[in-house]
Amino acid sequence: MGAGATGLGVAWDLMLRGVAVIVVDQGDLAHGTSGRFHGLLHSGARYVLTDAVAAGQCQAENLCLRRIAGPYIEDTGGLFAAPPEVPDRLIDQWKQGCRAVNIPVAESVVVKGLNSRWNRVFSVNDGVINGYPLLQALARGIEEGGGRVLTHTRLVGAAEANGKIRKVILESAEGTQELAVDAVVNAAGPWAGEVAALWGDPLPLTLSRGVMVLFSHRQQPQVINRLDMPGDGDILVPHDHISIWGTTDRETALPEAPPPDYQEVIELMERGQEMFPDMGQWRVLRAFTGVRPLYRAPGSGSASTRDISRDFVVVEHPLSGAFSVIGGKWTTFRLMAQQVADRVAGYLHYSTPCQTQSHPLPPRLESFDSSGLAEPFLCECERVSTRQLQQYSGGSLSDLRTRTWFGMGPCQGTFCGHRVAAWQSLRVGVEQSDQELLNFRSERERGMLSALWGDNAVEWLLQRNIRFQGLGEPTK
Fold first, then answer.
1. What is the DSSP letter of 356?
2. Residue-level pLDDT at 75
3. Please, are residues 121 and 79 in contact by the beta-carbon 8 Å criterion?
4. Burial 237-256 (b: 16+ CB within 10 A, else e)
5. What SS3 class is residue 470?
6. Which end of the chain is more exposed for a tag (fewer CB within 10 A), N or C?
7. What is the DSSP annotation of 303-337?
8. β-strand 78-82 against 223-226: which pairing, if any?
9. What are phi and psi of 237, to 5 degrees?
């Protein structure tokens, strides 16, 4: 259950061992936490002061992913810059912590644009994960290996016999179906508590929301981290031609990512200008929110979400054949999958060991060659044409967005959203296409409203004029 990094990782691992697998998700791939992160391939250096276990896992998996998932990793390198108020003893403690878990550290040069008072800078082996292409490749590899990936399909029930899970009940647009199963892995992220409740075993799950701000240009060639105890607003990640700044850490009640909070965005920007004084002049595209599923160990007290370990836990439920995995990070998804798959394979009496440490991920699809096309681009920012959209046989506008990246550039779908919706109407009909456009607009708008200043405010007004005057949408 769950078509994020962990769920697809578990299915990929089990499939390589010869186990028949089906992946189910209520949304599309990366519907939850996996689609709402800053893209950082952690070296582990962020956690050496507070969580040595998580730091060591990140470093080991960083090196592993570079071997098996090279096409999906950008080797940007990372820098840790110390604010002037951070004492030398803390910097020395951080360096010793890095060495203890084999994170390579070297003193580096001062970064262009960085606050001139932040004059102690250290390099580490951070990188960037291209998450969506990686997950799409995993899903493709699972299906090519005989497995199934069912998206927009919701788990609504489970049945047992003699203390063992035997059946799951699913709902989708096609109706209700029952699947006979020998085991179920709950990798539903923030929804893991709801899934576990179906077999009557609550999980000690704490949800934490984090807000991130997206800028329209690649402001730095490397990942830049604040060298201090982990806190809000201390990582800048370059991602293709944009930059992502974050994040916050606030406990939340619901698994669905809430709209970004305007005040949190302002606080993030103020925090960012301590590191980069010119950040207030950078062009903001939008803000977005992700929800982290954290495992609060029984008896740990009322620790804040920032104090809860980023390690992960595998749970075997009293209902035989039911497993859950909670916590962890994108960087450690393969390790999480391996430990879950070891338990499941043992339960099912499969003796084939894990192969994912050395087995390369499915190759990345060749990027679409748009050179020489006579047809106009539907999305100029990301150079997406009709022919590129035609590669995908189904899916909503939101699904197509994550596959082609249309609507993700500086104009945030101001023009291309309507063009792609018009093309989509020829496939699914005007009524469905209009509803998908409204959903697309709503999702884009809620990210823009939380960062409504400068060019972003002007662009938002332009979008409203196009919607309400040009297309006659009703005003609110």
1. T
2. 96
3. yes
4. bbbeebbbbbbbbbebeebe
5. helix
6. C
7. --GGGS-S-EEEEE-SSBTEEEEEE--GGGHHHHH
8. parallel
9. -120, 120
Q: What is the pLDDT of residue 71?
A: 94
Element (H, E) at 456: helix 454-465
- pTM metric for this prediction: 0.90
Q: At 236, list the tokens.
A: 């800048």
Quote the CA–CA distance of 447 and 449 in Å, as a whole number. 6
Residue 335, token pair as written in the block: 């390790």
Specify if 1 maps to a domain.
no
Domain contains 421: yes
Q: List helix spans (H) across 405-451.
A: 416-428, 430-449
Q: Residue 147 to residues 134, 142, 161, 357: CA-CA distances in angstroms?
A: 17, 5, 25, 20
Backbone phi, psi, residue 368, to 5°: -70, 130
**157-197 per-position pLDDT tens digit:** 999 999 999 999 999 989 999 999 999 999 999 999 999 99
How far is 463 from 415, CA to CA, in rounded Å?
A: 8
Q: Residue 345 and residue 341: Cα distance in Å, rounded?
A: 6
Pairing of strands 148-150, 22-24: parallel
pLDDT, tens only, 236-261: 999 888 999 989 999 999 999 999 99
Residue 329 — left, alpha, or beta (φ > 0 → left; ψ -120 to 50 → alpha)? beta
CB 123 within 8 A of CB 105: yes
Count of CA atoms in the C-beta half-sphere (13 A) of 298: 2
d(CA 420, CA 444): 15
CA separation for the pair 232, 247 (Å, rounded): 5
Phi, psi of 272, deg, nearest 5: -65, -35
CA distance 65 to 71: 10
User: What's at 461, amino acid-wise?
Assistant: L
Whether residue 88 is contained in a domain is answered as no
Q: Is 260 exposed, middle or buried (0-12, 13-18, 19+ CB in 10 A)?
A: buried
The tokens of 75 are what? 């080797």
d(CA 247, CA 265): 9
At 318, list the tokens: 């009293």
Weakly modelled stretches of the chain, pLDDT under 50: none
The single residue listed with the structure tokens 């075997």 is 316
DSSP labels, 375-402 = SPEEETTTTEEHHHHTT--S--HHHHHH
- What pLDDT is attached to residue 473? 60
Whether the upstream peptide bond of residue 475 has omega within 30° of 0, thus cis, is no
Vertex 85, ends 79 and 87: CA angle to 5°? 80
DSSP state of 466: I
Question: What element of type H or E holds 10?
Answer: helix 5-16
Is the distance from CB of 98 to CB of 42 less than 8 angstroms? Answer: no
User: Does residue 451 fall inside a structural domain?
Assistant: yes
Question: What is the C-alpha R_g of the chain?
Answer: 23
Domain interval for residue 451: 377-470
Cα–Cα distances in angstroms (integers) from residue 398 to residues 239, 255, 267, 436, in the given order: 20, 19, 29, 8
What percentage of the chain exceeds 90 in pLDDT?
A: 62
